């Protein structure tokens, strides 16, 4: 059987093929190829749009990520100070002895040259010492390592001395449990200039035992 090919388009558009049939007739079949499609991939315009969107996302996301990091640093530092206060309280109860949560200011820690517990603190903010004898004190915690740039103190930390009953006092006022309301301000205020809002965490104590925190905004330091 012979067939005839007509109108072949060698560029791939199409062709006609005639197949002989009985009685001298031919069956004509047209073969056509669909329009060609470009190879898969990005055009220059698509790439430029993608880069523009990525740039916008980076401009928005990077500051938010930095804010999250600085907020976490501030929270971590505050939690360390709260943890140190609780450690001082529990150590005093456990040993039935005086302990002290230390201020960053030496004069806040001690009542005089014979005050072994207060003098042991020096300027180790957030450190905790326990009085072992009338003339010596042993460290329980050496300080707050995360209280460093960009986190800093706004003002001074108040020293708190705990007795065996678990109540905390100011070293210079051992007759009445410490209360932030009476003292007129927070026990500690830590902040960071890396945040524009919610950049302070203040620590309060009520009736010598109840510890709370509050997030505020303001200049730092």
TrEMBL record:
GO cellular component: plasma membrane; type II protein secretion system complex
Domain General secretion pathway GspH: 77-175
SUPFAM superfamilies attached to this UniProt entry: Pili subunits
Location in or out of the cell: Cell inner membrane
Keywords carried by this UniProt record: Cell inner membrane, Cell membrane, Membrane, Methylation, Transmembrane, Transmembrane helix
Membrane topology qualifier: Single-pass membrane protein
Transmembrane segments: 41-65
GO BP annotation list: protein secretion by the type II secretion system
Cross-referenced InterPro entries: N_methyl_site, Pilin-like, T2SS_GspH
Family: Belongs to the GSP H family.
Name under which the protein is recorded: Type II secretion system protein H
Lineage: Bacteria, Pseudomonadati, Pseudomonadota, Gammaproteobacteria, Lysobacterales
